Amino acid sequence: MLTDKEEVWEEKKWRVQECYQCQKCSAGCPLALEMDLKPHQIIHLLALGQKERPLACRTIWICASCYTCSTRCPNDIDIAGVMDWLRQTAMKAGIKPAMAEVPLFHETFLSCLRSQGRVHELSLMAKYKLKTGRWFEDLKLGWHLWVKGKLKFWPGRVKNKKEIKELFLKIKN
Amino acid sequence: MRISYYPGCSLQGTAIEYDQSIKAVAKKLGIELVELPDWNCCGASSAHALDFTLAKNLAARNLALAQEQKLDLLVPCAACYSRLRAAKEEEGAPPPTKDDFQILNILELFNREEIIKKIASLIKNPLQGLKVVPYYGCLLVRPPRFTGAKNFENPKEMDNLLKLIGAEVVPWSYKTDCCGGSLILTQKDMVFRLVKKIFAQALAAGAEAMAVACPLCHSNLDTRQKEIAQGVDAAYEIPIFYISELIGLALGDNDSRRWWKKHFISPVKILEKRAVI
Predict the structure, then answer these.
(1) CB of A102 within 8 Å of any CB in chain B?
(2) pLDDT tens-digit profile of B233-266?
């Protein structure tokens, strides 16, 4: 868990205290209808020092990072950035994600990236479907993509793979 | 004109026709695309969802490679564009020097004055008033602190290009409404709900086709169109074009069919109806 000092700094950076609950973010969010906590509610909870509900909600995994909220906020609060920060904080703290398949996808994506420096879509799809047990989903679609030559067979790779691996080693966790 | 070219992972796979059409158009316009040597994946949404530092470093490696080339950098994929711009614009970055290159999305490049003039002079096959809605999606315009977009609620760059090549640009209200992006792989139903709204608005406005400049938007609107239509009364038949495909067509590329063969929704009927082909 972050120490008190780090937590205060992180929250100061996001300026959640400057929100006056105009709800423009939630009004413009394309996925607000699907969310348990609306964006403005998450900001308000954080301003009140309550991190538990935001870290455990479905919202942070439904957010599509479309940046409509951050673009429209009259106080320039980067709500989309807060969503990223909550996702990262939840994963680092080992909090069970409310929608596990979403971080699982991201982790699969990054593991493909780490191994070749570029993401081979076919490998990514195969790995993700296997991990989620959704073996037969989208098979027909995959077949059509293959027949149309839209799935590259051989993975592209970065020659300097060592540089890529080093980027992954540098990260906080 | 020489420009560095960062294709990104999807232009080598599911968005291959975007790559092919860009290269064909560039050739006609006398733009030499120099693929960035040994570029790496930008991290798309997965990197910044899980680690800011990793996301920045992945982009920074590409920016360093681009800096060596001393050429502006064309980034056709909206997500890659967003990530590379983010790394450049992030607070704490050193102020730009005169040696700094520009990171351009496809609309920014094609809207350059000299390119517009070149396209106008080379049109062989104008689009005969084909009714096209320009669909920008999210990352080409938002957030403005990354993209520098002047009008992020009602952008006009794609509109300009479509008008230039003889299409009828249909005004509509969903220009920059999110398609759901990569949620298609994890939350398909949610994406379907978003895309249905986009189609409904496009059809209500009288669109015959849609133009996009993002591989994921194209995928969500094209490859999933039939699947989405299964849950709705009317069958959609809205061809989704990459803007470069339409420009290539207008410039008289004699093999543009090879691009649409990769689409799931064929544009042949509507193009023949409008006597574009």
Answers:
(1) yes
(2) 667 899 999 999 999 999 999 889 999 999 999 9
- What is the CA angle A61-A82-A168, rounded to 5? 75
DSSP structure class, residue B277: -
Q: How far apart are CA B224 and CA B191, in angstroms?
A: 10
Per-residue pLDDT reduced to its tens digit, A136-169: 888 999 999 999 999 988 888 999 999 999 889 8
**What class, spelled out in words, does domain B124-273 have in CATH?**
alpha beta
Does the beta-carbon distance from A84 to B52 stay under 8 Å? yes
Q: Do A30 and B139 touch (CB under 8 A)?
A: no
B244: helix, strand or coil: helix
What CA–CA distance (Å, rounded) separates B106 from B29? 14
Q: Are residues A107 and A45 in the same domain?
A: no
Counting the structural domains of chain A, the total is: 2
Find chain A residues with C-beta within 8 A of B138's C-beta: 64-68
Q: Does A121 touch chain B (CB under 8 A)?
A: yes
Query: Beta-strand (E) ranges in B59-114?
Result: 73-74, 103-104
**Does one domain contain both A81 and A107?**
no
| Domains of chain B by residue range | 2-109, 124-273
Domain shared by A75 and A106, yes or no: no
CB-based contact A128 B185, cutoff 8 Å: yes
**Do A87 and A159 fall within a single domain?**
no
Interacting residues of B29 by C-beta distance below 8 A, sequence separation 6+: B115, B118, B119, B122
Average pLDDT of the residues of chain B: 95
Angstrom distance (rounded) from CA B1 to CA A116: 32
Alpha carbons B264 and A156: distance in angstroms, whole number: 25
The beta strand positions in chain B, using DSSP E, are 2-5, 32-35, 73-74, 103-104, 131-134, 168-169, 209-212, 240-242
Q: pTM of the prediction?
A: 0.95
Q: pLDDT tens across B38-59, in order?
A: 999 999 999 999 999 999 999 9
Residue A55 has pLDDT above 50, yes or no: yes
Q: In Å, how far is A89's CA from the nearest CA of chain B?
A: 9
**Contact status of B65 with chain A (Cβ, < 8 Å):** no
Instruction: Quote the domain boundaries for residue A73.
Output: 4-92
Q: Which of A40, A69, A92 is the last residue of a domain?
A: A92
CA distance A69 to A73: 6
Specify whether A112 is located in the same domain as A151. yes
For the domain covering B2-109, report its CATH number: 1.20.1050.140
